[in-house]
Amino acid sequence: MSSYLNNHTKVSDATEEEIDLKEVFRTLGRYKKSIAIIVFSVFLLSSLYAYFGTSIYQAQLTLQIQEKSGGQSTDDLMAKALGVESANVDNEIAIFQSRFVAQKALEKLNIGTRYYVFNNLKKVELYKDSPFEVDTKALSPRLFDSEFQLTAVDENHFRLTINPSKSEKIAEFLKSMFGTIPEDEKLVRFSQVFSYGMKITHPLFEMIISKKAPMGNEHYSFSVLPNEYMYAMLQSSLMVSAGSEKGTVLYLTYQDNVPQRAQDVLNALADAYTNQSIEVKSESAEKTLSFIDKQLEAINSALQNSASNLKDYKSSHIVVDLKDKATIAAQKMDQLETQLYELDMQQSVLKNLLSYLQNNKEIEGIDVGSATASSSPILSLIEKIQAANSLYASLLADYTDKHPSVIKVAQQIVSLKASLRGTIESSLRGIEQRKATLNDIISKNRMSLEGLPEQEKQLSQLTRSFMVNEKVYEYLLQKRVETAIVESSTVSGVRVIDNAVVDDQPIKPKRALIVLIGLILGLIIGVMQAFLRNYLANTIQSISDIEKHTNLPIYAVLPYFTGRKSLYEDALRVLLTKLEFQTSKPKIITITSSVQGEGRTTTAIEFARVISSSGKKVIVLDLDMRGSKMHEKLNLSNALGMSTLLSKKSTLEGVIQPIDSNLDIIAAGPAYSNTYALIISDRLAAVLEELKTQYDYIILESPPAGVVADALVLMRKSDLNLIVFKAKYSKKDFIKNINRFVEEHQLENVGIVLNALDLKNIRPWINK
């Protein structure tokens, strides 16, 4: 028995450590039907998904933004104040994805009305290929995106239907259960026949449906959403990315289920972006020209007045030429006063910028002069504020002003503006100091001219005034010419490198890949469920289930009894042959089971018949005196039997009932209160000894071994003990119980009969 335990332990360890490939294949074979069903089901679902899935196409467009805008220097403070700046890729991406550009693009598109046809069980969008066209004059928000169904009645008439979907009807029904639904919230239902081209008037909509091409028997539908509401569709499908971190090339992709619409949308977005760039530059140039014209008008008037005064003075006075010293002093005065004027203009720009900054949130569109007051800190701060403003506007398109990211950018803008104000005020103080210095120098030069004769002094003043005005006029005139050239030659800072193109094949769904994945996934799920079911199955499914849990020998594997007794009897003949060729041939055989219902009675009867058919004499003793069913199966009397024989109420000859020429039966007899006492009595031993002299085989049908102690007594009296397990009925734990039972009672000559096994699972055991 210790060797049995050691072997059993080795078998258990080997089972845990090694993968039994044969068992794997047996499991797959056992559940092959469910695997095939699952594989087919998942494959079918994936095929349906691939077929009905909406094809998505991708359009691509590449453009480049100029590194400098408007041809103006980025060191020009006025240009910065007017919103002209270097290209910032992140800002340009935000602008491209802004609602402003999308709305400009939507003005050139007509994608709010979408047309569909039901073809081959699928709903297909037509876009520009629709055989009819809808001109919507008015539409209630209740019908935004609702499905209008259109069916041709004849060549000139059609039926227009509005029918809510099942989900909408269910939602309305559930809502009605909790109260009355207001009239303006009820689902719209409508169906009527109209002529093509006529005006359809309804309280909720007004439209004209025109026929463009012959309409077959297909079922058409359309939905209408005002074009301005299509921004969400554009934003969700548009992707803008930069070619590199420091590059100025942008890659635009747009995905849509209609390839032509994807291409149209990208082209419209590119045009809208280009046009807004031109508008910004033109606006800046116009503001600059307006300011310069005002300055020119004032300076021109002063210049003409100076020239007239100088001319009048020369014609009415006789003057001599100035001395060299006076000439030099006059020229220096001209230069100083010109510098003072330039400082005045710079001061004007900065004051205008400071005033605008204090009264406005943005710093674009300031109407200032064209002085080129260069200040790197100011220019840098303006650029940062403009970038922050662009980021703030793009964030507000997606979030509220309470969002943490929006709050952070707003605080950054406030901080930058405070720094800008401080820098401007500091620059103004510097200009004031420079002006004071210039005024001191100018005062000293005036004093040097005081010594000149009165006529020369006055002539010098008139000449100086004329020269200053002339220089300022020339400066402004030059600036106006430059700005006018910029305005007249304004072009977009955007260059389209590759126009929008669409691939012929959709980017998704990948139908072949989906079907392949479905096939593989179905196989994986099928195999997993097979092993899971096999793991969770607590009943004996195959011979290997017994071999993995015990070292007890398997004496016979009986097929499921379906009425074809030849196969069943052949398996029992194999069992008989094994017994006949044993060295010590068993004479008394106990047939038991772990619980009721495992087929021990049928096995005992059929085995006895096989033995009798071989010419051997055999008798079956029904010792299950508590729950006997043998007499019912054989239609025998149960008035006398083992209970009466062992209680000495009847004789051995009186209880034997012949079945065939070589087969006799002793029934269990009437129920007895203490069968255990009868079985351990000497009477049973005496009966068995007497029967040995008359029969070749004595078969004892025992009560279940795991239920009562009667089986243990009978097994000790037997030469061979066969424990019957029923496939797909007996639990695997029963094997462990039998192992424990055999070990504890040190039983010998114990074997197993597996009953009711599928034929396909018997072949591997036979081949052994």
3D architecture notes:
The chain is about 50% helix and about 15% strand. With about 775 residues, it is an alpha/beta fold. Among the domains are: about 280-500, no CATH class; about 545-765, 3-Layer(aba) Sandwich (Rossmann fold), CATH 3.40.50. Strands 14-21-20-15-19-16-18-17 form an eight-stranded mixed beta sheet, sandwiched between helices. A six-stranded antiparallel beta sheet has the order 3-2-10-5-6-7, with no helix packed on it. The protein has a four-stranded antiparallel beta sheet with strand order 11-12-1-13.
Describe the protein's topology.
Blueprint: H1 2-17, H2 21-30, H3 32-52, E1 57-65, H4 77-81, H5 89-96, H6 99-106, E2 113-119, E3 122-125, E4 132-139, E5 148-152, E6 157-162, H7 166-176, E7 190-195, E8 199-202, E9 205-211, E10 219-224, H8 231-237, E11 238-242, E12 249-256, H9 259-316, H10 324-359, H11 376-396, H12 404-449, H13 454-488, E13 494-502, H14 511-536, H15 543-547, E14 554-559, H16 565-580, E15 588-593, H17 600-613, E16 618-622, H18 630-634, H19 642-646, H20 652-655, E17 656-658, E18 663-666, H21 675-679, H22 682-692, E19 697-701, H23 710-716, E20 720-726, H24 732-745, E21 750-757, H25 759-767
Helix pairs in contact: 2-14, 3-14, 6-9, 9-13, 10-12, 10-13, 11-12, 16-17
